[in-house]
Write a structure and sequence with these properties.
The protein is α/β, with parallel strands linked by helices. It has eleven helices and eight strands. The protein has two domains: 229 residues, Phosphoenolpyruvate-binding domains (TIM Barrel); 29 residues, no CATH class. Helix 2 links the parallel strand 1 and strand 2. Helix 5 packs across helix 6 and helix 8 runs parallel beside helix 9. It starts with 12 loop residues before the first helix and ends in a 10-residue tail after the last helix. 42% of the residues are buried.
Length: 272
C-alpha cells in the first residue's frame, strides 16, 4: 500500500482509519504532563496516550495497578491543555471499569468531562465486549488493548510474550474481531509474535497499534520516558532509545552545580 502522507490540522478517530486505508503508519507516544505533551504534539505525533504507565514512570510503582481514576484525570487534563493537533487517548485504570458496563461508562464520562480527553482505552478481549458497546453507544470513542495486558500481570505472572501457542493466538484474532464489532476505533497489540500481529491487522478494518508486535501493524506506540532513555534499567527487546537522558540530565545538573559553586552563575549578563 501507499505510504502517502496527509496533513491533518487535527487528528481524529476517522483520520486514523484513513491512514490505515492509505497505508500510512500511525505514530503514538505516551505523555503525562503539560511540558512534555506540548513538545510531543509540536513534533507532529498522531496520537498521545495518557497511559496508566504513569503509575510506573511518574509515581514509581512497580505495576500499573495503583493509579486511580482521579490520577488519570489529573494527568489527562495536564496533557489536553498542551495539545493542539494530536488525538488524546486516556487509559481507564484498573478497578474503574471491570465491575460492570455501567461503572465503565461512568468512569469514561468522568474522563471525558473532567479532563477533556478525546477517547478512552481499556484492556481485554471478548469478555469486555458489552462494556465497550455501552461506552461507545454513549458517544465516547474506545481504543482496545489485547495481547499482554499489564493490568492483568498478577493473572499472567509474567511479562513474557503472549499468544505464542495456537489456541491463544486463535483467541486473540477472535478478540480483535469482537472488539471491532463492538465499536472500537483502534486496537493496541502488546508483546505478541510479529506473524500473529500481521494476521490480526489483516483481519480487521480498524487500525492496529503495536508495542512489541513487529512491523506489520498499522502504527507503533512507545512510552515516552523509555524512548528518551530516562530509565536505562528497563530494556525490553522492542524498545529503541532515541536519547540517553539518564546521562544527559545529570550531566547538565552537575554543570549547574559547578557553575553555582564556582560563582560563574549568574554572570553579569544574567543579573539585573
Amino acid at each position: 500500500m501507499s505510504k502517502e502522507k496527509k496533513s491533518y490540522k487535527k487528528v481524529t478517530t476517522n483520520s486514523l482509519f484513513e491512514m490505515k486505508q492509505r497505508g500510512e503508519s500511525i505514530t503514538m507516544l505516551t505523555s503525562y504532563d503539560f511540558s512534555l505533551a506540548r513538545l510531543v504534539d509540536k513534533s507532529g505525533i498522531d496520537v498521545i496516550l495518557v497511559g496508566d504507565s504513569a503509575s510506573n514512570v511518574m509515581a514509581g510503582h512497580e505495576t500499573t495497578l495503583p493509579i486511580t481514576l482521579e490520577h488519570m484525570i489529573y494527568h489527562a487534563s495536564s496533557v489536553i491543555r498542551a495539545v493542539e493537533r494530536a488525538l488524546v487517548v486516556v487509559d481507564l485504570p484498573f478497578g474503574s471499569y471491570q465491575g460492570n458496563p455501567q461503572e465503565a461508562l461512568s468512569s469514561s464520562i468522568r474522563i471525558m468531562k473532567e479532563s477533556g480527553g478525546h477517547a478512552v482505552k481499556l484492556e481485554g478481549g471478548s469478555e469486555i465486549v458489552e462494556t465497550i458497546k455501552r461506552i461507545v453507544s454513549s458517544g465516547i470513542p474506545v481504543m482496545g488493548h489485547i495481547g499482554l495486558t499489564p493490568q492483568s500481570i498478577y493473572k499472567f505472572g509474567t511479562y513474557a510474550v503472549r499468544a505464542k501457542e495456537k489456541e491463544e493466538a486463535n483467541q486473540l484474532i477472535e478478540d480483535a474481531k469482537s472488539l471491532e464489532k463492538a465499536g472500537c476505533f483502534a486496537i493496541v497489540l502488546e508483546k505478541i509474535p510479529a506473524s500473529l500481529a500481521k494476521k490480526v491487522s489483516e483481519s480487521v478494518k480498524i487500525p492496529t497499534i503495536g508495542i512489541g508486535a513487529g512491523p506489520n501493524v498499522d502504527g507503533q506506540v512507545l512510552v515516552l520516558h523509555d524512548m528518551l532513555g530516562m530509565n536505562t534499567e528497563f530494556n525490553p527487546r522492542f524498545l529503541r532509545r532515541y536519547l540517553n537522558l539518564e546521562e544527559l540530565i545529570p550531566n547538565a545538573i552537575m554543570d549547574y552545580i559547578n557553575d553555582v559553586k564556582s560563582g560563574s552563575f549568574p554572570s553579569e549578563k544574567e543579573s539585573y
